[in-house]
Write a structure and sequence with these properties.
The chain has helices at 2-7, 11-20, 23-40, 105-129; strands spanning 48-52, 57-61, 66-74, 77-88, 91-99. The chain is an alpha+beta fold and 133 residues long. The protein folds into two domains: 2-40, no CATH class; 48-129, no CATH class. The strands form two sheets. The protein has a three-stranded antiparallel beta sheet. It starts with a helix and ends with a helix.
Amino acid sequence: MLLFASLSMNPFVFSAARRVVPRPFVTALSGILAAAALLACTPAYDWRTIQNNDDAYEITFPAKPRSDARDIEINGQKMHMSMQTAEAGDAVFAVGTVDLPNADAPTRRAAIDFLQRGLAHNHKSRRRRKPRG
């Protein structure tokens, strides 16, 4: 019944929904939501919020993240790249930033293209190493 109370605080809507929805459905839905909540809290997913004041972002990771930083070259220009990654189960969660030397549109486009190609390459390599099936 808490599910309907969270959808609407109007007592008429709550009582009308109670009569229309079959009790087995509500029981099954409650069980599924409880199981999902328990799975989200398993040791494989130990969620924590990380604030990065240097790069001005906040992200929630399912495990303690590792940090890495290096200088990269994009279109002949050196740029600094920082990443934070966390692994949970078979999934990898990551956030990365690149310090651009200027705000020109071609520089931004080159950086985005470079990062997209790298992501696509890493995804293809991972799929070849670990077939799903």
